[in-house]
Amino acid sequence: MSVTFYHYPKCGTCRNAKKWLDENNVDYEAVDIVSHPPSKEELASYYEKSGLELKKFFNTSGLKYRELGMKDKMKTYSEDELLEVLASDGMLIKRPLATDGKNVTLGFKEEIYNEVWK
After folding, report:
1. Measured between alpha carbons, how far is 17 from 57 in angstroms, rounded to an integer?
2. CA dist., res. 38 & res. 44, Å (int)
3. Phi and psi for 106 in degrees, rounded to 5?
């Protein structure tokens, strides 16, 4: 199983997740989420497979999220519009985002990584 690991190299949480993947010998491909963000179609697929609400895919504590006033737009935008906005800028996406095509995780919690990626 190879995991696509979308991360932002300057993010401490991403570094912790990457360290966990390395220590647990998980085969992964690291992708810089800012220079190569997932497409709208990929995000739609990840969203569907994750079982999470779409809001969870947004980096709600990020500067871009606040600059764009996304808190208010979350209530009025359609799912399609939200996916479009999400795909427009990797800094809007909650990170790290990891997927093997079947499973999807957002952020880094060791217990979830142990459950999903070990």
Report:
1. 17
2. 10
3. -120, 140
